[in-house]
Amino acid sequence: MTPLEIALYPSLLVIGLVIGYVIRVFYAKFRLHSAEEKFKEVLAEAEKEAEAKKKEMLFEAKDNIIQERKQLEREFNERNAELQQLQRRLIQKEDSLDKKYEGLEKKEKDFALLQQEFQKKSQELQKAYERHLRELEKVAQMTAEEAKQQLLTEMVEEAKRDSIKLIKQIEEDARDEADSKAREVIVAAIERNAAEVTAEKTITTVQLPNDEMKGRIIGREGRNIRAFESIAGIDLIIDDTPEVVVISSFDPYRREVAKIALERLIVDGRIHPGRIEEVIQKVEQEINQEIVELGKQACIDLKVTLPRDLYPYIGRLRFRTSYGQNIYNHSIEVANIAGMLAGEIGSNVDNAKVAGLLHDIGKSIKSNGEGSHALVGAEVLRKYGLEEGVINAIAAHHGETEPKFIEASLIVAADAISASRPGARRESFEDYIKRLHTLESIATSIGGVDKAYAIQAGREIRIFVNSEQINDETALIVARDIAKKIESTMKYPGQIKVTVIRETRVVEYAR
What we know:
- This protein is mainly alpha-helical.
- The protein has helices spanning about 5-140, 145-200, 210-220, 225-230, 250-270, 275-300, 310-315, 325-345, 350-360, 375-380, 390-395, 405-420, 430-445, 470-490; strands spanning about 205, 235, 245-250, 320, 325, 450-455, 460-465, 495-500.
- The strands form three sheets. Strands 1-3-2 form a three-stranded antiparallel beta sheet. Strands 6-7-8 form a three-stranded mixed beta sheet, with helices on one face.
C-alpha cells in the first residue's frame, strides 16, 4: 500500500461518517415530518368528533328543553284551568251570598214588625190577666197569695207520693237492666284499655330511600297503590312523614306479606301492577313455606310427632297475638310447662305437650265465626285421629266443656301460668317494676297507712294500717278508697285484690 493510500483512508473515513450523519439527519427529519402529519390527521379527526359530539349534545339539550317547556306549558294550562274554575265558583258563591243577604234583610224587617205586634199583644194579655185575677179573688174570697200557698202544699204532698212510686219503678228497672248495663260497662272498659294495643298491633312501617319513592309507589293517577292494596288486602297510608309509609291491617299475615313485598319492590325499582302482583304472589309462597317450617320446627323442639297437615296451622300462629302476646311462642311455652307438670305427677308427658302446643290452634283455623277457638280447634283436630285426652284438653281449656282427663287440668294451669307471668303480655320489665311502685305509692298516699306491699306480680296489694288512727269501720273505707284510686289512675289486666290489715300488738318485757 502506498503512502498516498494510507493518507487517504482517514479522509475517506471522515467523509463516510459525515455522509452517514447527513443521511441519518435527513431520515430523522423525514420521520418527524411523517409523525407531524399523522398528529395533524389525528388532531383533525378528534376535532371533527368533538364537533359532532358537541352538536349531538346541543341537539339533545334542545330536545330536553323543548320537552320540559311543553311539560311546563301543560302544567301551566292545567293550573290556569283550575284557577278559572275556582274563579267561577267564587263568583257563584258571591252571587249566592248576595241573595242570602237580601233575604236576611227582608227577614229582619219582618221580624221587627212581628216583635212590635207581639209586645202589643203581651200588654193586652197582661191587662186581661189582672182583670181576671181580681174577679177570681172576689168569687173565691181568698187572696192570690193564699191560693198559691194552698196549691203548693197540695202539690208537695202529691209529689211525695209520686216520688215514692217513681223510686220503686226505678229500682225495678235498674234490676231488669243490671245485666245489660254491666256488659256495656265491661265492653267500654275493654275498648278503652285495648285502644293503644290495637293501634300498635295493626300497623307496620316501611322505610323509604327518599321521598321521591312515594310518587312511584302511588303511580300515575294512583294505579300502583290501588293495585297494591287490592292484591295485598291492606291499606297503604302515605302521608307527610318523611321517608316512611304505613301498612295498616288487622291481619298480621297480610301485613307481613305486604311489608316484604313493598321492600322488594323498592329495591327492585320496577313498580307497576303486573310486577306488584308477581312479587306479592312470590312472597306469599315463601311465607307459606316458612309457616310450614315453623310448625315442623316446633314439633322437633318439643320432640312430639304430629301429622304434616297440622304444620301450617301451628306455623300460622306466629302471625297471631293475644293481648300483645305472640300465640306461637305462647303455645310452645304452654307445651313445655304442661310437659313439666305431667312429668311431676306421673302423667303422659307427650299428650300434655301435644295438647299444650295445639290448645290455641283454633285461632289459626278459618271458620264461619261460630263457636270459640277452643271448640273449633278440637273439632278440626278430631279429624286427624288424635287421642281423646288431647281433644278434651283443647276443648276444655277455657271452660266451654267439662274436663274429663288429667291433661285438661294441666293445660288450664299451664295456659294461666304462661299468660299471667310477669312480662308475658306486652309489658317490659321496666314497665312492670314501675307498675308495682305506682301501686304501692297509691296505697301509702292514704292517711293512716304504714306499709304497702304489691305481691303476686301486682295482682294483689297488702296494706298495713296504724291501729291507733284506723279502726275496723274505717279500714273498710280505706280499702274502698284505695281500690277506687287504683281504678281511676292505672291500667292493668284482670283485677287487683286490695287487702287492708289492722292489728294491735301489746309488748311487755320481763325483767
